[in-house]
Amino acid sequence: MELLTERKRLPQGWRSQLEPKRKSDTRYAQKTIKVIGDAAHEFALTVRTSVDFLTDFSVILSLVENGHEYNLVRHNGNHKADHTNTIEKRQGLPNSILRNAFHIHQATQRYQESGRSIDSYAEATSLYNTLDGALDLMVSSYGFVIEAAATFLPLFDVDDKK
Fold it and tell me: Of 60, 73, 82, 161, which residue has the fewest beta carbons closer than 10 angstroms?
């Protein structure tokens, strides 16, 4: 999917800008930053975490288009509930139910065409086991680059020998 590999520029200090803030009247903390890709697509990078369970989290890469966000990839923690891949379960396929597993959701055409959320399909992963690990994997896997700090050059040559 070209949207996933499109280069996306993260601002300096992006990690601190993604520090989740608790949402009022919820048991979650969440923060989103918007980034623009080199092909002018707008993306949202969201971190969401439970205030009660360290392994209950999501790191989400979304496409922002016409006021809507479409989740392209979602790195989830180990939630209390099982995750079911409903199409695979109906077809009797293996790996249709993920129990006690860190897992990665990815947008698929077959889920979109079936009327389900485009990122409903998920696969178990051992590539991370913390929120920071899931965020690092997201940034390293999907075209993110960190903007370099500004470098200032002197306006005049300085001759220290005078």
Answer: 161
H/E stretch holding 32 reads strand 28-36
Distance CA(156)–CA(124), nearest Å, equals 58
Contact between 145 and 5 (Cβ < 8 Å): no
Which residues, listed in sequence order, are joined to residue 74 by a DSSP beta bridge? 60, 105
Q: Strand 42-50 vs strand 28-36: parallel, antiparallel, or unpaired?
A: antiparallel
Residues 6+ apart with CB under 8 A from 65: 41, 42
Mean pLDDT, the chain cut into blocks of 10 residues (162 residues total): 91 93 91 96 97 95 95 93 84 84 91 85 94 97 85 61 54
